[in-house]
Design brief:
0% strand, 4 helices, 58% helix, mainly alpha, single chain
Length: 137
């Protein structure tokens, strides 16, 4: 369990945690809405292509349609990844570990959490180390 006072919270004071929970819930709701809109876009692209015989190789519009479909699919996948990150952040909040850097254990600044509610690292640990190769994705 993390010392609540390290995060600017008094022991037993649920208000800051409620604000964190609300910020995560709002981000989650926005992401769900964005995912639904992207799915509608994807379905519309597929439906539009079903109405015509599209030969991607020979149709001048085929390549751009394929790109558009792949682009929207990638945006949907990223939205699903973000939902998983938000769910993990909510789990950390329940365990009392929200706002603690997973690498160094220091407090993640509240300003960073306002911008990236699902952040798992402090600013220093999030910066790439130029002496090391980047972590594999």
């Amino acid at each position: 369990m993390v010392d609540a006072s390290r995060h600017g919270r008094e022991e037993g004071d649920p208000a800051p945690f409620a604000a964190d929970r609300a910020r995560l819930a709002a981000d989650r709701a926005d992401t769900l809405a964005r995912t639904a809109a992207l799915r509608r876009d994807f379905d519309a692209i597929v439906a539009a292509n079903a109405l015509v015989a599209v030969d991607d190789e020979h149709d001048p519009e085929g390549a751009s349609t394929a790109f558009e479909r792949a682009h929207v699919a990638a945006l949907i996948a990223r939205a699903h990844e973000h939902l998983a990150e938000l769910d993990e952040a909510l789990e950390r909040l329940e365990r009392g570990e929200y706002g603690q850097c997973e690498r160094c254990g220091q407090t993640i600044p509240p300003e960073r959490l306002e911008i990236r509610p699902a952040a798992t690292t402090c600013v220093r640990c999030a910066q790439p180390d130029r002496r090391r190769p980047p972590r594999p994705a």
